[in-house]
Amino acid sequence: MARLAAFDMDGTLLMPDHRLGEQTLSTLKRLHEREITLTFATGRHVLEMRHLIGNFSLDAFLITGNGTRIHSLEGDVLHRSDLAPDVADLVLHSHWDTQASMHVFNDSGWLTDRDIPDMLQAHVYSGFRYQLCDFKRLPAHDVTKICFCGDHDDLSRLRIQLNEALGARAHLTFSAFECLEVLPVGSNKGAALATLSTHLGLTMADCMAFGDAMNDSEMLGQVGKGLIMGNAMPQLKAALPHLPVIGHCQNQAVSHFLTHWLDTPHLPYSPE
Length: 272
What we know:
about 270 residues; Rossmann fold; 2 domains; seven-stranded mixed beta sheet; alpha/beta
């Protein structure tokens, strides 16, 4: 029996309209009653996640910013990692051949230099908003992560540019088809979950995890039970072909799987 369950948010726990379904919330509460520790592992900012879990009325550890921050149940920082200032400076102030918008996370929130109201749709239930910022004035030592949002093919070309410029000085990953992340070296959800597991006196073998994008790959590949969403990026399924694929987030597939796991673990599982 797993003792720690880790959940990606967008494309996994949340439905396509970025809402947590009632069935899913009920199942998460059942896990809590079984004394299974919950953690939400997401690219979203901790300020937003605190608001959301308050609405959910759940006790959960938070892995935010794609592993750059870990927070305890009480909100204390258990781990933090930021981009090296020289890396942040290069990414922020270089000219990149891309149409993608640039976004910065730091402890104050989400910063961008363009007003893009459509991007707020993913945050409609939390009310979390970006702050408009002149990146030329942003200190390079105050950057947790940088992400680019836009067309996937454009981002794939940008990834080649960033990789050539940064080499091993940063970790690049897709957190969605339309989102490319620039993270500190060694920062990913898997490394963060391993740190949290150790803090709790557990091992990664004691964990189960659910995800749908390439930023979930380290986490899913290292836990005792990793599960891939049916709506996951094809690259994730190809990278971890040995892991089971469950249903679509639209159908609250995490809840469907966990209900089976809790009630009828002796029977074979098939997606809804």
